[in-house]
Amino acid sequence: MPIVTPGKRPAKRFLKSKIIGGKISRGRKATNAEINVIPMVDMMTMLVIFLLQQYSSTGEVLYMQKDIKLPDAHHGQTIEVAPVVAISGSEIVVTGVKVADVPDLDRDSGYLNIPGLEERLRDEKKRWEYLHQQDPEKKWDGQVNIQADKGVPFRIVKRVMYSCGVAGYFSLNFAALDLGSAAAAPDKAPGAG
User: Where are the transmembrane segments (predicted)?
Assistant: First the structure.
């Protein structure tokens, strides 16, 4: 439907009429601008399909880094939203901020704690408390999600766990790839129904 200015609008066949058409349009330019809405509907359809394919009912809890290969697990639970400590072969990152280098931690074996990690986790705890100060029913659960590479030595993971405990995070969740549903599928033969 074209966009037109309000007022009298005769049918298109009367506009070409010598008798009625001249009286209505007298010196005015036609302001009818016809808009083709088919491309807009096509674009909106593609956008809706794209958004539906990208939708996740659980939400994105973990951002998978390229340099981290997670271990496999057959039994597990879905993790909840909490600060993410990502341990790769080269660095430790908390919610997107680098806090330590793994080679430096290997050289410095005197203490168990990682000061940069503790400080960042305490900042996350303060942020959580500030966001939930108006909600007294919401209690601090002290959860943190640890996303460690398969090849990271346990002594590094142990130091990360200790630093999390010192910062007040006592509920540690380890991220792993879920093989529970994938393990049942290969038992069938390709043609078996």
Answer: none
